[in-house]
Amino acid sequence: MHRVSRNGGVAESCPVAQVRAGSGPVSGPAVSRRRVSAGLVAGVAAAFATGALPGTAFAQQARPPSRPRTPSPGLGDLSRFNDSIVRLDAKVPEDATSAQSLGADRVGTGIILDERTVLTIGYLTLEADAVMVTTASGKRIPASVAGYDHKTGFGLVRSVLPLDGRPMALGDSDRVQEKQRVLTLGQGEPEATEIFVLSRKTFTAGWEYLLETAIFTFPPVNNWSGAALISVDDGRLIGVGSLIVNDAASGQQGIPGNLWVPVNLVKPIMADLLAKGRRGEGADPWLGVTTESVRGNLMVVRVTRNGPAESAGVTPGDIIVGVAGEKVSDQAEFYRKVWKVGPAGATIPLKLFKDGDVRDLSVKSIDRADFLRKATGI
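and the corresponding structure tokens:
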């Protein structure tokens, strides 16, 4: 099990395993000036490989600035967003699928959308039975998981009583451009911090996850899990913090930053998440396979126990060379071609290089939400 230090550093590995300490400081200065340990994202991969949560092994050590940065002129009072930010403490049963990789106790940030609804990154509350919301005033209010969406990674929480904070309006994340100034604010921070959009590009990861136009920022912050990315222009929410990465720039390696899920992705599914706990019809097919690019090949590095891929005979070490008669060479191609076959429940024809031979296997996909423990409150 991953251990997380109280100041937000990961004692072992996993960018989302540190949800147990909020992926950043529980209290202290904005953009925690503390270290971010190596291998932050590895545990997330392990989590999804077991049917738990997102994860990948691309993140290396990224060291946030050691001193506070002086904000640009004209940004106004950077504490004005504080009332919209809450701390989330989620309690997950020890026997839940995600507990081994993400821990049973998770802490992170949420953003108030209305008097009872909080938006966050979904892995914080995945399979949680109980959630406690702490507002900026210090008021603690019980809550439950309202919804989770694997495709985007968003999660929603509903409090049992009205929150005493101020709702933050959703902005237009499609308008976010490279080199744009933005603000970030996580729970426990005294004010928002200015950062910059470094790139808008496709993000893929081994847990069957793809974002076509993810937002990447610089410099990196280590209080990112569920943190708010805020437009300087209108003070609206444009992204929710997900990961720390070492390839935030386009066409360049070794530049650390943070990955944010654009808020426009949650708008079409908001009503379904609140009403049903998940997106409506047409969920993507899920296979339960974790892949990595190894020497130009898309290799299976892990399969989810009792998942569709394992049941069909897919094993670690297999190389995926085709889907439905079409060649694939990377994760993006793989996901797009799998999802093109049909919605969850579709049978996915795979061509694998396995045990020295090219073989055809058919995997009966499922909706990933059906594989996970249903959280109390949905």
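(Above: one complete record from the training split.) Residues 1-67 have pLDDT under 50 and may be disordered.
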